[in-house]
Specification:
With 606 residues, the chain is of the alpha+beta class. The protein folds into three domains: 172 residues, 3-Layer(aba) Sandwich (D-Maltodextrin-Binding Protein, domain 2), CATH 3.40.190; 139 residues, Dipeptide-binding Protein, domain 1; 267 residues, Dipeptide-binding Protein, Domain 3 (Dipeptide-binding Protein, domain 3). It has 22 helices and 25 strands. Strands 13, 14, 15, 20 and 23 form a five-stranded antiparallel sheet that branches. Strand 5 and strand 6 form a beta hairpin. It is globular. The two termini are 37 Å apart. The N terminus is likely disordered.
Length: 606
């Protein structure tokens, strides 16, 4: 998942999609670059350098590369921890609904300018004014050169605010203040929102932050400064004023242009020295040189889930809890994990959370009472569940009370095909009819843009931030998506209890006794949307815990989806020519390979 996706809702992502299209290599790979010095190291990036644009409101922003060339103000790790980087302190004032962030001195842009609160202020002021009523921010206040205050429209949960100190588009310090200040001032003078949207279009067209501009004007802030680029790569040298420069033993860094088969060839040929992800993700098994190995391996914060929807052609079936549970019993997660073309481990419990997040946030005594779903298939129990719901097996096909086949439409983007084939085969073998549809990513996104008219898909589940909220938020595909706030509110006001976006239940009944498998005993009504809204503003540690438990128990009981696997990721590298210090969790973060280099954990072998 691109870093931007983590901080945008579905609707915001669609609106911003034109600014996030990564440029392809388009066959212009060129030859191998020679001349990397003994003190240098190389990784890869997939975009023709001339097509890179550091204006995040325009096409061509280097979302992945920015994790190397820029610095975050805070950093999140897979174990749920967080560190402040360019922030020295922060405080949330519940009375004012405001968070005040003090920025750390000692961080510099490549041009020598101190990184200040103004860099965030002018960038975020553009975002706030572009978003209009859709922004959570009522006002931004530049208290002084190093202090920024964000005044929110609604009360905030301090436990969640600490993950949002980076402001718009997350934690990255993306752009020098001088570039967006004139545009923000123009936006402040605009007469209405329509005029601000016109300014946004002008800014995207008239202010390209071309890679040459960033290089010539020194507009990066990472420890490796761009000094040259061509059709084959981007070439950087150590930035001596970076606060970690003295800890870095690498003098030069090169971004080689490569992706897909060309990337595999360059890894095999020793042109690429290290990178994010596991080695087997990029090259075929047994084809990597002996010098290459995985440096770190860990479970990512994102799982893969099979999602159930409630208004597709098979809605009458999937709206029955027994059918969803039967599907969970049909699936053999071990086989799914083995056949998946990404390294993974089966998710052994349906808590709605990865194992580490479950352990960190939920009491063992609470979770041990949950309904148990198998890791291997249990067709006998699946059959019992289908029969309880009134279905019967006619020959080798399941039919309902009217004799109609249980037919479900599975629609997915093309990059999920490998995972979906295994799932589809298992469901078909059990007796379901599966209408299997693979779409190009853009077509798939278009089909889901306004509403979901199919039954099943496969999506990410989670967030870069390993907090339960990000797994159950209502307005994100990687959460427990129910749709946009205004649409849900209108549906509830009209007396509806299901999402107008995808047909999922908004208001549910859950047993008060955790582990109860039906609703025959004492129950409570839970409005998932209202609980989500409360979570965003609650200021009580115990209530935070209770809400996390309620959402997790809801997932386990109602099963709006099945968590299939926990994806494994990490860093690979050339262990013959470089030493990697792995005694740190710096590697276990998004694009951790870059962080390892940026914090001095890679050094030339003696």
């Amino acid at each position: 998942m691109d870093s931007a996706e983590e901080f945008l809702t579905r609707r915001q992502m669609l609106a911003a999609s034109s600014a996030m299209v990564a440029a392809g290599v388009a066959g212009c790979m060129g030859g191998e670059k020679e001349g990397r010095g003994e003190g240098g190291i190389s990784s890869w990036q997939p975009t023709i350098p001339d097509e890179i644009n550091f204006n995040s409101w325009a096409t061509g922003y280097p979302w992945s590369q920015s994790w190397m060339l820029l610095e975050p103000v805070q950093r999140f790790y897979a174990d749920g921890s967080m560190t402040l980087e360019q922030i020295s302190d922060w405080e949330y004032d519940p009375d004012e609904q405001a968070v005040t962030v003090e920025f750390e001195e000692g961080w510099y842009w490549w041009n020598g300018d101190q990184v200040t609160a103004e860099d965030k202020y002018w960038y975020e002021e553009c975002a706030r004014l572009f978003q209009g009523d859709g922004s959570d921010i009522e006002e931004l206040i530049l208290e002084d050169e190093m202090t920024l205050t964000r005044v929110y429209k609604e009360p905030q949960n301090p436990e969640l605010v600490q993950y949002q100190l980076g402001g718009y588009l997350g934690e990255m310090q993306r752009v020098h203040r001088d570039k967006f200040k004139p545009w923000a001032e123009e936006l402040q003078d605009a007469a209405d929102h329509d005029e601000r949207l016109e300014i946004q279009e002008e800014m995207a067209e008239e202010m390209p932050l071309h890679i040459s501009t960033v290089m010539d004007e020194g507009l990066g802030n990472g420890p490796f400064e761009i000094v040259d680029y061509d059709t084959e790569g981007i070439y950087c040298e150590l930035f001596e004023d970076h606060p970690y420069a003295d800890e870095i033993e690498i003098d030069e860094f090169e971004f080689v242009l490569a992706q897909d088969d060309a990337l595999a060839q360059r890894i095999q040929g020793g042109v690429v020295d290290f990178g994010f992800g596991l080695l087997q993700q990029w090259v075929g098994e047994g084809t990597a040189p002996n010098s290459m190995d995985n440096i770190t391996v860990y479970n990512d914060t994102f799982m893969r889930k099979l999602e159930f929807f409630g208004q597709g052609p098979g809605a009458e079936h999937l709206r029955r809890r027994e059918v969803r549970r039967a599907i969970a019993h049909v699936l053999n997660l071990e086989h799914i994990s083995t056949n998946y073309n990404t390294e993974s481990v089966p998710r052994e419990a349906q808590t709605g959370l990865p194992s580490a997040v479950t352990e960190n946030w939920l009491d063992d005594s609470y979770v041990e009472s949950y309904i148990d779903y198998p890791v291997q298939d249990d067709e006998e129990r699946a059959t019992e569940l289908m029969e309880q719901a009134g279905y019967e097996l006619r020959g080798d096909e399941w039919v309902d009370e009217d004799g109609d086949l249980v037919s479900l439409q599975l629609v997915l983007p093309d990059f999920r095909t490998n995972l979906a084939r295994t799932i589809s085969d298992q469901l078909i073998n059990f007796g379901f009819e599966i209408d299997f549809n693979v779409l190009e990513s853009a077509t798939y996104n278009d089909r889901k843009s306004n509403n979901v008219d199919f039954d099943l898909t496969i999506e990410n589940h989670g967030g870069q931030i390993a907090h339960p909220f990000y797994y159950f938020r209502h307005n994100h595909t990687a959460g427990n998506e129910l749709g946009e706030t205004v649409d849900i509110e209108q549906a509830l006001d009209a007396g509806e209890t299901r999402s107008p976006y995808n047909g999922r239940e908004i208001v549910v009944e859950v047993p008060t006794e955790v582990g109860q498998e039906d609703l025959s005993g004492s129950t409570e009504e839970v409005n998932l949307f209202e609980l989500d809204q409360e979570w965003r503003s609650v200021n009580d540690e115990q209530r935070n815990q209770e809400i996390a438990e309620t959402f997790s128990w809801y997932w386990n009981f109602h099963l709006p989806g099945v968590n299939l696997v926990e994806v494994q990721t990490g860093t690979f590298g050339n262990t013959q020519d470089y030493d990697f210090n792995t005694e740190t969790n710096d590697w276990e973060a998004y694009r951790g390979a870059y962080r390892g280099l940026k914090r001095g954990h890679i050094s030339p072998s003696d």
